[in-house]
Design brief:
homodimer, 156 residues, alpha+beta, Aminopeptidase, seven-stranded mixed β-sheet, two-stranded antiparallel ribbon, 5 helices, 9 strands, globular
């Protein structure tokens, strides 16, 4: 069965599903506050994409397009996607959900930068993500991994 | 016994000790490569501070001064410290090592920003760190916590 990636509507139901993921933090809390304050109906401009199994959200990621003027990773400097909170619920791991989400991100054709959890490097290598040359002023406590589309290379 | 915070000399011995910490990543690997390539003798300008128990490194953090022109967290905008990789080896936790390191960081009198691990918020609250208003473009996947010295407040 082909896995379908969907842009998530961030409403109360989705935020409830987010609680099952380990990486639940200030971003989710902030969205919840906006909903509770009736500041928004749905976060239709949410950065979250996910995959459902039946009606259960089992995998998700956040994707954000960084403007070219802030690009310090790629040459030529350009807009790129920052990917974070890629996570698959434990009982759904090793089934291609994570890979499907990352391939979806690649389909935009932009370079991608992520700061994965320690010890997930095998997963990212298989998907052709590469280490950067660590730069303390830029990278601080991060472990950035990047994906270069054709014609794009590291910024020096 | 008073705990003593030391600026770490990053040499082969220190890098070997770093391997015991969970948050070992591209920053440490990059320092190791520099040493192996004889590019540096000791990283005396290392951003790492630590506490030894006897001759064993049992706690560490990285501290980096961000220039005022990049400040997007504090008002008035100013230089601040970014703190990361605060970690105490498991058998030395709950003994004040983490608190001692953070208090050392505060002693510089600059505002501090950190992006702690999920579920450590109790520790940071006790040390007067506060949540920021989440801003996706600035914070992306982070959960920033900040400490305001007197006279400093959040940037809006």
């Amino acid at each position: 069965m082909a896995l379908k990636v969907e842009k998530l509507k961030v409403n109360f139901k989705t935020l409830e599903e987010f609680k099952k993921f380990k990486e639940y933090g200030i971003q989710e809390l902030s969205m919840l506050e906006d909903l509770e304050a009736n500041m928004v109906e749905d976060h239709n401009d949410s950065p979250f994409y996910g995959i459902y199994f039946g009606d259960k959200l089992v995998a998700r990621m956040s994707l954000y397009q960084v403007d070219a003027k802030f690009d310090r990773y790629f040459y030529p400097p350009q807009s790129y996607l920052e990917l974070w909170k890629l996570e698959v619920l434990p009982e759904y791991q090793e089934k291609g959900y994570g890979r499907t989400l990352v391939e979806f991100a690649k389909s935009f054709g932009l370079p991608i930068k992520t700061n994965p959890r320690v010890k997930s490097s095998g997963f990212w290598e298989k998907l052709d993500f590469a280490n950067v040359d660590y730069d303390m002023e830029r990278d601080r406590g991060e472990n950035p991994l990047v994906w270069y589309p054709e014609g794009v290379e590291a910024q020096h």
